[in-house]
């Protein structure tokens, strides 16, 4: 699904992808904000077919927009599948490894031979940016995991929602439109 989404995305205008990304993130944040969190005593839904049914659109969105783990999978796991917030985040991180492989492969294959890409690129993947982001992110993910484990689920949920709302509004250009230098 990630490969197919990436292939589709390479044929769409960048501006459309930016709007779609911002819209999906904003809507996911609003949905998490307005939905009642599941009761803690509820057990997660252990239905393989239901998990696969949700995995397909998550994989496609991951490939098209480069999102899926945190932005789509966490709200779906918390709201639809009744995961606890900490479990949803941890599971999402594990899933990202595999959804990313399909998406990255799609962007590499579909970007081969495309002119005007930055130096040090293989297809659409900029290796210099990837290396710098990957090295820094690995260490900071450890800090984030330790911090998340120490926070109450409700506080973690609201931090997650605030971040999604901010990113969604930023990608949609709302802050620029308002003249806010954010």
TrEMBL record:
Keywords: Membrane, Transmembrane, Transmembrane helix. The keyword Transmembrane applies. InterPro entries: TM_pro_TauE-like (IPR002781). This is Membrane transporter protein. GO terms for cellular component: membrane. It is found in: Membrane. It is a multi-pass membrane protein. The chain crosses the membrane at residues 12-34, 54-81, 88-109, 129-146, 158-180. It holds the Pfam family TauE. It comes from marine sediment metagenome.
């Amino acid at each position: 699904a990630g490969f197919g989404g990436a292939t589709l995305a390479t044929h769409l205008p960048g501006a459309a992808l930016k709007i779609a990304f911002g819209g999906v993130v904003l809507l996911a944040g609003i949905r998490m904000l307005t939905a009642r969190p599941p009761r803690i005593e509820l057990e997660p839904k252990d239905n393989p077919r239901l998990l696969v049914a949700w995995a397909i659109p998550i994989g496609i969105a991951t490939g098209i927009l480069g999102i899926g783990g945190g932005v789509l999978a966490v709200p779906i796991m918390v709201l639809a599948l009744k995961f606890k917030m900490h479990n949803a985040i941890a599971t999402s991180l594990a899933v990202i490894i595999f959804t990313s492989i399909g998406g990255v492969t799609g962007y590499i294959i579909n970007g081969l031979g495309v002119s005007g890409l930055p130096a040090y690129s293989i297809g659409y993947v900029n290796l210099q940016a990837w290396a710098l982001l990957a090295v820094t992110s690995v260490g900071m993910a450890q800090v984030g995991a330790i911090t998340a484990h120490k926070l109450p689920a409700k506080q973690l949920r609201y931090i997650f929602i605030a971040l999604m709302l901010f990113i969604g509004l930023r990608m949609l250009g709302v802050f620029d439109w308002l003249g806010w230098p954010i």
